[in-house]
Amino acid sequence: MITYYRDDTVLVTSSYVHIGDRRLRLDELRYVWHQQVRPDWRVRSRTARRGILNLLMILSVFAGFVLLVAFAAAAYGESQLSSAVGRLHVPRNTLLLLAAVLVALGAVPAVWEWMLHRVDDSYDRGDAIHEIWAQTAAGQIMLLRLDDATRFGKIYRALERALDQ
């Protein structure tokens, strides 16, 4: 017996399919097909979260640019002032603010990595709900309903390979 796919809830082998608590022999399945149905609130919220993360990444780049320009302008203004006075004096509050900004900038790559991973994962999972149906002697039955496009594709391809044997 060949195992084509296995996870916590689905097992596709060369002789049967086990999904949840249902086990069907492959010779019981007369016809298998899939369809895409309208997304529910979970799928739509995943799409909304992806949009929010994209917006936050764009805004963070804009905020970084504004901070860079502000620090450059402050440094230029401070250098003009110091050349007029003859010595460089940087207030303690400015140094503390600069140190805090530098520490915060150290966390930016980790936050961006997390955000990019979440966005990539949401694209991999897709924006739809997928169902696998089968025609048996008892009639049409829905074998599986998933909102994860990657997992759906793996299961459906495994089922096709098993049925082709």
Characterization of the model:
There is one protein chain. The chain has 165 residues and is an alpha+beta fold. The protein is 58% helix and 24% strand. The strands form two sheets. Strands 1-2-3-4 form a four-stranded antiparallel β-sheet, covered by helices on one side. It has a three-stranded antiparallel β-sheet with strand order 5-6-7, with helices on one face.
Key terms:
165 residues, 4-stranded antiparallel beta sheet, rod-shaped, alpha+beta, 58% helix
Going across the biggest sheet, name each strand in turn. Answer: 1-2-3-4
Could you give a short account of the major beta sheet? 4 strands, antiparallel
| Through-space gap between termini | 11 Å
Question: Helix segment count?
Answer: 3
Short description:
The protein is of the alpha+beta class and 165 residues long. The protein contains 3 helices and 7 strands, in the order E-E-E-E-E-H-H-E-E-H.
Layout of helices and strands:
Blueprint: E1 3-6, E2 10-13, E3 16-19, E4 22-25, E5 31-37, H1 41-85, H2 92-125, E6 129-136, E7 139-146, H3 149-164
Antiparallel strand pairs: 1-2, 2-3, 3-4, 5-6, 6-7
Helix pairs in contact: 1-2
